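Input sequence (722 aa), recorded before submission:
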Amino acid sequence: MIASPAWAGMFEAIDTGTDLKDLDTHQHHLGSGQTDSGGVGLMQTPSARMAPIGEFSLSYNYVEPYRRYSISLQPADWFEFTFRYTKIDNRLYGSSIAGDRSYLDKGLDAKLRLWEESRYLPEVALGVRDAGGTTLFGAEYLVASKRWYDLDFSLGLGWGYLGTRGDMVSPLGVLDDRFKTRPTEGGGDQGGEFALNQIFRGPAAIFGGIEYQTPWDPLVLQLEYEGNDYTNEPSSEPLQQDSPLNIGARYHLNDSVALQAGWERGNTLMTGITLSANLAGLSQVKRDPEPITISRATAPAEPSTSRPQQSSTSEVADSATGSQADWRATTDQLLTNAGIRVNRILVSGDTLVVEGEPTKYRSLARTEGRANRILHNNAPDTVTTFRYRWQSRGLNLRDDVHSREAFVEAAESVQAEPDYYYGIYTTPAKGDAHGEVLADAEEQRFEYNIGPGYNQNLGGPDGYLYQLLVRANGEYMTDPNGWFSGTLGWTVADNFDKYDYVADSELPRVRTYIGDYLAESSLGITNLQYTRTKRLGDNWFAMGYGGLLEMMYAGVGSEVLYRPFNSDWALGADLNYVHQREFDQQFGLRDYSTWTGHLSAYVQTDFEDVLAKVSVGRYLAKDIGTTIDLSREFASGARMGAWATFTDAGDKFGEGSFDKGVYISLPLDAFFTSYSRDRVSLAWQPLTRDGGARLDRRYSLYGMTEDRELDRFWENREDFWE
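Predicted structure, C-alpha cell format:
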C-alpha cells in the first residue's frame, strides 16, 4: 500500500473545485461515523473508510429489538477491530439459565483496507462481522467508498447477515461450488468458535449508501440500501421490513461525542451515541517546573543561533567542590525537577555517576537533560562526564553517558546540538559502579496512595455487573531489590446482588466464582505480597514473590527473563504454586490448589510497531495451551491491544472454544497537567470462563526492564531541552 504524496491531494482538491480549507474542516465528520454495530460506516452497512490511526470508540445503539454496545479500535490506518455485545430484547436465555433476562450475544469484527482512495479509484476494504462469536450476525463483505465534494459514496457486496436478500449467487461460485451454499449446522451458532467454514459462502447481496456533509458542520445526513431482508433474524420472531432504504443523521456535539438517529426497515426508529478519543494524539498541557537555568556556562554563542534560556524555579548554588557541595539537596532537586529517585551519587575520576530510577518522565531524554543542568550547577570543575545508571527495582538496566562541556554548548547554541548528540553513548550496565560515594539514599522507604478502583463482569446472563471501589495501595522497600506491597479495596457501589447464574463447568471453578468474590465483602485485601529481584547476568533478570498474589489466589512464584540489551526480543518463564482464596478476600484459603506457569516470547516487530507476546503453558484450571497477545503503543504512550487463548480443554472450556479480549493502557500524564510514568488499563472480554484463566500477577520483569530498549530515547532527543 502506497500513500499518495501530500501534493497529490492538493492538485486533486484544485481539480475538483474543493477548497483545501474545506477539506480539512468542512468535511471533518464525513465518512467517520460508527455503524449501529460498531466500526466505521453508515447505519446497518459498513463503508471502506477507516477512523484515524489510534482511534478508540465506544458506542451504544438501539433499534428494536437490538441494543448494541461496541468498542472499536484502530491500531493501524489499514486495520479496524470491533468488539461487540448485542442484547436481544425479545429473546431470552431461558428459565433454566436466567429466567426472563434478555439474551446477550458476543461478537468480534475486523476490517482490512485493501487500498487507499486516489483521484480516480475508490478506497476498498474487506471485512468480517461476528467472526469470533456465535455468528448469529455473522457476515462478510467487500466494499468501496469514493468521495466527491460533500458526498461520500459506498457500494458493497455482502454475504451472511449482510446478504440475506440474496440478490445473486456468490461470485466465488465460479471457483468452487462450495461457495454457492452457506453451512447452517448448529442453527448458525458456532458457540464462540471462528466460523471459517461459512466465510464468503452462500448467496450475496448488494448494499450501499451516501453520506452528505451539510453546510452546518456538526450535521451529516445518511441514506443507505441494505442487503439484509430480515428473514433470518436471531430474534424470537421475524422482523418486518417495509423498505430496504434507511435514512439517518449524525450530529457531532464535538470531536469526542456524536449522536445518531434514523429510520430503519421503513418502520423502526434508531438512536445511538458514540464516544471517541484518539489515543495516538492524547496530550495535556503541562505545568511542571521548567528546567533549571544553567548558572555556569561556556562562552555564549552568536546571537543568531542562541537558544532562549528557560527560567529557573529555584536558586542554584554556584561552583562547589565535591566535598563542599550539598549533595543531599542535589538529590532532592534531581527528584523534584528531573524525576530521578537517586539511590547513589558517586564520583570516579572525572566522571560523576548517578544511580537511580526514573519516576516522572516517560522520556529519558527529558530526564537526563534536566539532570545535566542540575549536575552541571553543582559538580566540581574536575568533572567532565555525567553517567546515568538507570535502575528498576534494584536491577541495573543501562548506562547513559554525556559530555558535560558538549551539553552546555548545545544548551547555548542549536548549532552545537549535532556534536552533542554524536557524543552521547549508551551501554548495558555491567558490574557495580565504584568511586567516592557523595550521596546515598535511605534503603527503607514507605509510599502509599489512595484512589478509585473498578471491577466488572459482563457478557453473562446476569447482564452488566460492576463494582466501584476506593483502593489504598502501599509499598515498603526493605532494600533496593526487595519490597512489601499491598492493596486494600472498599466497595462504594455495586450491583452484584444481581449475580445469580453460574454456568455449568467440567473444569475446576478457577474464575467463574468471580461474583462471589466481588459480592461477599465490602472490604477486601486484593494484594499483599513480598517481592524480590536479582540480576543473574548481563542479560538475565529474576524475580521471586509470595503472599496474597491477587483477589482470588495466594501462593508463591518466580519469574526469569532473558532480555538482550537494545534487542527487539526477549524470553521469559514464570512458575507459580497457588491456593484459591476464600470469597471474603481475607486470609482464608479454599481447598483448590495448582501449579501454573508459562514460557513467554516477546517480539517488538517492525510491522506497525506491534509488540507480539506468545505464552505457552499451564493455566489455573490445569488446562494447557497458548495465549497470543498483540498490541501497539503510540507516541503518546497509549497502547491498544487484543489477546486470544486456546487450550486443550475442548468441550470443557465453557461457552466457546477459546477466550479473547481487547484492552487499552493509558498514560496518566495524558490527562493531567503533570508528567507521570504511571498508567491505567481497561480491558474487556466477552465472558468470564474457567478455561484459559491466568494468574493476575502484579509485577512483570518485561515491564520492569523496558528501559533496556533505546528507540524512544533517540526519537525523543528534542526532549533534552524541555
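Checked by second reader. The first strand starts at residue 55 and ends at 63.
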